[in-house]
């Protein structure tokens, strides 16, 4: 008779009662051992060794006893796993599937002593899934109940465990002050009051020899006694527990423990910390702009041709770079199919283009002469000094051009800007009554082209009549193609031209563009987006008629 090697697995979620001579783990093991003995005539034998997990949840597979058992199953030391109940093995359906896969790969199985079912039948598998579903439900309900209990207890100001903050000792469901650690906390707060920055507070704390509290871990290892880090000091300064309060997630409640720092002083310090946090961080060779939060300078001022407002939006790249956009509100609001006519313009290029148009409009003496009724020579000269055309962004002491904007209307190929009468009057140092509002509305043609991940907004004055890069690459493609027709290989052409063979293979496809497409490129009238990069990334037909149809909507 073939021997079936059986391993007993036991688990208990909490540590309560494990110190007893005969605990829950022992009871489970005894019942499983008795069941193995009853199956002795089937060849069942108990393998030596214990696979126990005391005080560990069944919602995870990260359990020492279970991992030891799974390792023995993989190595072929165990044929059958015996558990008191299926929820002792796991309370998660997903984890159970992983365990079953390991058992199947090793040709092993499991048995529940108190739950009889045969997983070889469809009814047995259904029963098993139902039992596991209820086990997982029970675990989730228990977790919700514990979370609710913690929230209710903290609302009453009780200490619910965790790492005891330096300066205190645990005293049941509350805390008591521990000297001299509490004096370290008071010293850190005093240092911040004196110097006003976390950096200086850490520097002075290091000079005074302040160290973190020394604690003995359950393993017997000593921890602490090190210098305070910047993060640790900031955590101490912002921890409401030192003001006699208990924090639960985003809410703070009055605590039942004694405060180390006066609550009023603690509140004042939080305001001081907030005021210091908004200061731009600058260093050698750095600009103040790097420390400032990126703002949407045209918020609420941009509208599309349907009258829909363009709403500021943003996204992040895989590397964490934040990209800002102005998006037609209907694209954000609508849950249906997106309107293909909606706008999605990059924020910084749009703002830069608007600023350039405003500066250009108000820097022309003839415009200012028409804006200010009965303008004097001094007023015209003063306006040109405030916004110099040589400074496309703005003078350091001058106004932000975006503050002068009242409304921006975007239509296909055209930007219309309406300036604010009062803002322009303040800028020109005249009364609003002298401003001719008709001259404050002006337009400019524009194009927006996408190259890779970058989208450029090109104003009418900056629109190039021809994409020189594309036109030169088409010429190179024809030269390469002529060399191929002459019998040269790609390798020979690469050597002569000083470029890679792959580059030649890609560019040579441009030699098959239709003559009228090449003519449009030469004249600068090709569709928007038809660039070298686009043509190299997308396959296009060699039939000229198909090319014209393909390139038309770009």
What would the keywords be for this entry?
single chain; 554 residues; Rossmann fold; Hect, E3 ligase catalytic domain fold; five-stranded parallel sheet; five-stranded mixed sheet; flat
SSE order and pairing:
Blueprint: E1 4-12, H1 24-38, E2 44-46, E3 51-54, H2 64-74, E4 80-83, H3 86-89, H4 93-106, E5 109-112, H5 122-155, E6 168-171, E7 174-177, H6 181-195, H7 198-207, E8 215-216, E9 222-223, H8 230-238, E10 245-248, E11 251-254, H9 263-277, E12 302-304, E13 310-316, E14 322-328, H10 329-333, E15 344-346, H11 347-363, H12 365-371, H13 377-386, E16 405-411, E17 414-419, H14 421-428, E18 441-451, E19 454-459, H15 468-485, H16 490-497, H17 501-507, H18 515-523, H19 532-537, H20 544-551
Parallel strand pairs: 1-2, 1-3, 1-4, 4-5, 12-16
Antiparallel strand pairs: 6-7, 8-9, 10-11, 13-14, 14-15, 16-17, 17-18, 18-19
Helix pairs in contact: 6-7
* Helix fraction bin: 40-55%
Q: Based on DSSP secondary structure assignment, what is the total number of beta strands?
A: 19
Roughly what is the average pLDDT, rounded to an integer? 81
Shape: flat
Rg from alpha-carbon coordinates: 37 Å
Count of runs of 4 or more consecutive helical residues? 20
End-to-end CA span: 77 Å
Number of domains: 4
Query: What composes the largest sheet?
Result: 5 strands, parallel
Work out the strand percent.
15-25%
Structural class by SSE content: alpha/beta
Uncertain ranges:
278-292, 388-398
């Amino acid at each position: 008779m073939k021997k079936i090697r059986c391993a007993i697995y036991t688990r208990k979620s909490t540590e309560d009662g494990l110190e007893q001579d005969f605990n829950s783990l022992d009871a489970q093991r005894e019942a499983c051992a008795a069941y193995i003995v009853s199956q002795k005539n089937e060849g069942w034998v108990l393998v030596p060794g214990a696979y126990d997990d005391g005080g560990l949840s069944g919602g995870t597979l990260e359990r020492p006893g279970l991992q030891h058992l799974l390792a023995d199953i993989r190595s072929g030391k165990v044929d059958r796993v015996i558990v008191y109940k299926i929820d002792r093995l796991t309370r998660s359906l997903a984890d159970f599937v992983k365990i079953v896969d390991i058992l199947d790969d090793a040709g092993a199985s499991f048995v529940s002593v108190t739950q009889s079912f045969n997983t070889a039948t469809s009814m047995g598998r259904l029963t098993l899934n139902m039992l596991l579903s209820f086990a997982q439900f029970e675990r989730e309900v228990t977790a919700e109940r514990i979370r609710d209990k913690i929230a209710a207890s903290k609302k009453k100001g009780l200490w619910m465990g965790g790492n005891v903050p330096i300066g205190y000792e645990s005293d049941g469901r509350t805390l008591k002050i521990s000297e001299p650690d509490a004096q370290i906390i008071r010293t850190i707060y005093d240092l911040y009051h004196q110097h006003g920055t976390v950096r200086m507070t850490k520097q002075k704390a290091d000079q005074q020899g302040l160290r973190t509290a020394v604690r003995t871990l359950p393993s017997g290892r000593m921890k602490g006694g090190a210098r305070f880090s910047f993060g640790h000091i900031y955590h101490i300064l912002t921890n409401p527990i030192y003001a006699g309060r208990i924090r639960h997630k985003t809410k703070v409640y009055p605590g039942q423990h004694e405060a180390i720092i006066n609550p009023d002083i603690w509140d004042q310090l939080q305001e001081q910390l907030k005021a210091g946090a908004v200061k731009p961080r600058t260093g050698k060779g750095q600009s103040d702009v790097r420390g400032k939060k990126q703002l949407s300078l045209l918020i609420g001022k941009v509208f599309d041709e349907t009258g829909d407002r363009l709403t500021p939006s943003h996204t992040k790249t895989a590397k964490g770079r934040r990209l800002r956009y102005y998006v037609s509100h209907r694209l954000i609001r609508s849950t249906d199919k997106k309107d293909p006519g909606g706008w999605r313009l990059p924020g910084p290029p749009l703002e830069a283009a608007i600023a350039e148009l405003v500066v250009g409009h108000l820097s022309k003496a003839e415009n200012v002469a028409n804006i200010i009724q009965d303008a004097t020579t001094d007023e015209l000269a003063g306006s040109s000094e405030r916004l110099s055309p040589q400074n496309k962004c703005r003078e350091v002491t001058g106004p932000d051009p975006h503050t002068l904007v009242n409304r921006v209307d975007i239509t296909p190929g055209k930007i219309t800007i309406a300036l604010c009468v009062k803002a322009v009057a303040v800028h020109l140092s005249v009364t609003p009554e002298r401003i001719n509002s008709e001259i404050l509305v002006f337009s400019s043609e524009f194009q927006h082209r996408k190259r890779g991940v970058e989208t450029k907004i090109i104003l009418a004055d900056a629109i190039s009549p021809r994409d020189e890069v594309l036109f030169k690459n088409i010429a190179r493609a024809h030269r390469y193609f002529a060399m191929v027709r002459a019998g040269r290989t790609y390798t020979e052409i690469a050597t002569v031209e000083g470029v890679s063979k792959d580059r030649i293979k890609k560019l040579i496809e441009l030699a098959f563009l239709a003559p009228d497409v090449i003519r449009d490129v030469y004249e600068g009238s090709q569709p928007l987006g038809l660039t070298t990069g686009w043509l190299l990334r997308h396959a296009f037909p060699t039939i000229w008629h198909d090319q014209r149809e393909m390139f038309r909507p770009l």
